[in-house]
Design a protein that fits this description.
By secondary structure, the chain is an all-alpha fold. 75% of the residues lie in helices and 0% in strands. Helix 2 runs parallel beside helix 6, helix 3 packs antiparallel against helix 6 and helix 4 packs antiparallel against helix 5. The termini are close together.
Length: 155
């Protein structure tokens, strides 16, 4: 693999990891890149996407035509109790797979969650999903079944 194709693949992995974290590490495992390379090209861009989501959570103010003054509602209290117990942790675990990292940090910011808690949960969930995807592709040795050299352009 030449230097040009290496950096193009690294850029593709970073782009894939911004939204769905499992795709970039799967590509890194598929290409037999090292774990530090996978970490640098996948986990760091995903955390950067989280920072952008956190920033836009504070800047983004959408005027809603049906906004009313907030008053006490029993269902809202029930939702907030469930969110405080399980919501942020379960949403952090689903962020790399289903929700998307910027959406998770934006929702956490809108629900006034703490910065440190949000990013620690996000980092560990990204690390977990990336590790499962990366080592899964290394373990199953997909290079035997799909010829990646045919798919990459020769330079």
């Amino acid at each position: 693999m030449g230097a040009e194709s290496y950096w193009l693949i690294a850029l593709a992995m970073a782009g894939l990891s911004i939204w769905k974290t499992y795709t970039g590490p799967a590509l890194a495992g598929f290409l037999s890149l090292s774990y530090p390379e996978m970490f640098m090209f996948n986990v760091l861009p995903a955390m950067t996407a989280g920072v952008f989501g956190w920033y836009f959570g504070s800047v983004l103010h959408l005027p809603l035509p049906f906004q009313k003054q907030v008053r006490f509602r029993p269902k809202l209290r029930k939702f907030l109790r469930a969110w405080n117990n399980y919501g942020q942790v379960s949403m952090a675990l689903l962020a790399p797979i289903l929700i998307g990292i910027p959406i998770f940090t934006l929702v956490s910011r809108k629900l006034k969650q703490r910065l440190i808690t949000t990013f620690v949960l996000l980092f560990f969930s990204i690390l977990l999903c990336s590790g499962i995807s990366y080592f899964g592709f290394l373990l199953f040795n997909w290079q035997e079944y799909i010829a990646i050299d045919v798919l990459l352009p020769a330079m």
